[in-house]
User: What shape does this take?
Amino acid sequence: MGEKSLGIIETLGLVPAIEAADTALKTADVTLESMEMAGAGLVAIMMRGDVSSVKASVDAGKDAAERLGQVVSTTVIARPAEGLEQLSGAEHENCNDSVKQDACPVETTEEVNIEFSKAEQLQEMSVVVLRNIARELDGFTMPRKEIRSARKSNLIESILKYYQKRGVDHG
Assistant: This one.
C-alpha cells in the first residue's frame, strides 16, 4: 500500500460514479485505483494520493455525484493498513490505471437487476439498499412515500413481483 492515502466514493448508479471520478481526478493530484461494481447498482470509485489531495478530491467528487444522483458513502483512509489492497479492487490489476481497460469487469444494468432479483440475495440486503433499488426501478408500483417507510419484507415482496411481471426468473 505504501504511504498513499485511499479515498472512496460510493454511489447508487454508474453515471454519478463516473462524474465523481472525473471531478475528483481533475481537482487534485490523485490517481484512480479502481472502479468496482458492488451489485444492486452500487458503484465504488477508489483513488490514491497524499492525504490533502485525496480529501479535496473526495469532497469535490461527492458534490459532483450528488448533482446527478445519490452518494451512499465516502471515506478517506490516511494510512491504509498493509494488505488492504486485497479489499480495494487490486485483484483487477489491469483496471488500476484506467476504468477504460477491457479487462475490467463491468456489469450491465440488466445483469445487476437479475442478480438482486433473487429472493435470497434480497434478504441479505439492508432496508436502505432495498429502498434505493425500489426507487430506481422504472414502473415500480409502490409510491415513493410508501417506499420511504416500507418494511423489508414488503420491499422484497414488491421487488420480486416487479420482476415476476417482467418475466425475470428469481428462483
Notes: The longest strand covers residues 31-39.
